[in-house]
Amino acid sequence: MKITEIDYEAAKPIDSYGDGFFRVDGKVHEGPMLILPDAVHKWGGYDDTAAILANADKIDVLFVGTGAEIAHVPASLRDVLEAAGIGVEQMGTPAACRTYNVLLSEGRRIGAALLPV
Known about the structure:
Elements: E1 14-18, E2 21-24, E3 27-30, E4 33-36, E5 39-42, H1 50-54, E6 61-66, H2 75-83, E7 87-91, H3 93-105, E8 110-115
Parallel strand pairs: 6-7, 6-8
Antiparallel strand pairs: 1-2, 2-3, 4-5, 4-8
C-alpha cells in the first residue's frame, strides 16, 4: 500500500487537543479556538462572530465543537452564519476536530470554532 503524506498548503490542521487546549499546526493554544483557512484565533464563544463573518467568502461550512459532548448551538449564531452563506455543523469537540481534519485534507473550504473539552 502506498501512503501519501497530506499537504494542507496554508491551512492549519488540528494536531491534538486536551483538557483546555488545542495543538494547531504544531503550536499549543489554550481556551476556545477559531480555526480559519489562513489563521488561528482565540474565540470568545457563541457571540463572537466578527472573524468568522470577515472570512465568509473563504468557508462554506463551520464546524462548531461544543465541548466534550454535543450540545445545541444557539439559534442566534446559526441564523447569523447562515445569513452570511456559511453552513453550521454542531458536534462534540472531538468529532469536530476529526471531521475538520478529514475535510481539510480533501481541500474543502471549512473552518472550526471549538470549545475545549
